[in-house]
Amino acid sequence: MSSHDIPEENLPVEQDATHGAAVTVADENHPFADPGLPPHEHRIQDIDERAAKRSERTVALLFTLSMLATVGFIASYVTIEPNKSIYVFPIGHISAMNFALGLTLGVALFAIGAAAVHWARTLMSDVEVADERHPIEAPPEVKAKVLDDFQQGAKESQLGRRKLIRNTMFGALALFPLSGVVLLRDLGPLPGTKLRHTMWSKGKLLVNMNTNQPLRPSDVAVGSLTFAKPEGLEEHDEDFQTQIAKAALMIVRLQPENIKDKQELEWSHEGIVAYSKICTHVGCPISLYEQQTHHALCPCHQSTFDLSDGARVIFGPAGHALPQLRIGVNADGYLEALGDFAEPVGPAFWERG
User: Which stretch of DSSP H or E encloses residue 44?
Assistant: First the structure.
C-alpha cells in the first residue's frame, strides 16, 4: 500500500517547509540552482496502525532480547569455569567463558542498537525540514523554537503512546549496566596469605628442571647455575604456571669461605645456596650468572644481586634481595627444602603492609 492509495484526509499532517524555499532558477545572485527537497513519501507505518503495531512489537522484541542476553552474560560469568574450553568451527578450541561472554555481550549491544534504529526509521517522524543557518548565539525566539521542536520531537517519537516500547527500552537500558557491575567481582576476594607461600615445605626434594630428577650435592659443581622446582610439580599440572612462578629456584654452589652473609651460610649445604629465581622488581625470571663475581643478573631491567652476600641488590631497580630457601640433605643423599621461603617471592610489596 502506498500513500497514493490513501485519501488525503487520512494522511499525517506535514510541517510547512515553504520558509526555506529553494532557488530553482540560476541568476546573477544565485549562480547555482537548488533543486530543493524531493516530495515526501509516507511510510506504511504512518498510514497503517497495524504496521505501526508490528514495528512496535519488533522494537520491543529487540529490547527484550537485549535483556535476555544481559542475563545470559551474568549467568555465563557466574556458572562457567574459567578453564573450560569448547570447540567452535572453524576457530578451534577456545575458552568457553570468553566465547559465552563475547556472544551475550555482543547480542545485548546489537539488540539495543537495532531496536533504536528500527524505532527511528519506522515510528519516529521522518519529515525533512530545511532550516536557515543562524548565529552561534541564539536569540530568545530561536531558543523558544528549539524547545518547541524538542517537545514536538518528543511527541512524534510516540514514547508516551507506545508504552510497550518505552517499558522494554527502560528495562534493557537499566539491566545492561549490570554486566559491568558483575565484572567487579574479579576485584575480590582478597588473596589472603596465598601470595606469601609456595609449594616448598620441609622434606620437599629439589628437582632439576632439565632432567626432572632429584638433585644430589654432587650434581651441583662449583660455579655452576642450576634451576630447580619442588618435588611433585609437573608441567602437565593445571596450576603449573601459577606454582612455578612462585617456586622456581636458582641453585649455585660457592666455596663456603666466599659466602659473606652468616644466615646465607647457615641456610646452605656445603656451599650450595638456593635462591628464588623471580626478580624482586617486576617478577622476571633471572637466568644470568657470573661465576667470578657471584653476581646474578635479571635480563629485563638489569637488576643485579650478589649471591655471595645474601643476594642483596647491588645495581638496578629491584627493591630488595632475593628470598633464600633453607636446604639440607635427606637420608638418601638428596637435596631437600627445610621449609618455605621466609618472605614472599617476586615483587612482594604486600609483605610491607
Answer: helix 44-47
Within a 10 A sphere around the Cβ of 60, how many other Cβ atoms? 22
Contact between 225 and 244 under an 8 Å Cβ cutoff? The reply is: no
Which residues are CB-neighbours of 201 under 8 A, at least 6 positions away? Answer: 337, 339, 340
Across 267-293, average pLDDT: 92
Q: Which is more confident, 311 or 186?
A: 311
CATH tag, 194-352: 2.102.10.10
DSSP letters for 164-178: HHHHHHHHHHHHTTH
Can you say whether the dihedral through the CA atoms of 95, 194, 241, 233 is positive or negative? Answer: negative
Does the pLDDT value for residue 18 go beyond 80? no
Say if residue 75's pLDDT is above 90: yes
129: pLDDT strictly greater than 90: no
pLDDT of res. 251: 94
DSSP state of 321: P
Q: One-letter amino acid identity for 97? A: M
* E strands, the chain, in order: 85-88, 92-95, 206-208, 225-230, 249-253, 272-276, 288-290, 295-297, 304-306, 312-315, 324-325, 327-329, 335-337
Residue boundaries of the structural domains of the chain: 3-187, 194-352
Q: b/e map of 318-347 (b: 16 or more CB within 10 Å)?
A: bebbbbbbbbeeeeeebbbbeebbeebbbb
Q: H/E/C letters for each residue in 105-157?
A: HHHHHHHHHHHHHHHHHHCCCCCCCCCCCCCCCCCHHHHHHHHHHHHHHHHHC
Task: Using a cut of 0.70, tell me whether the model's pTM lies above it.
Answer: no
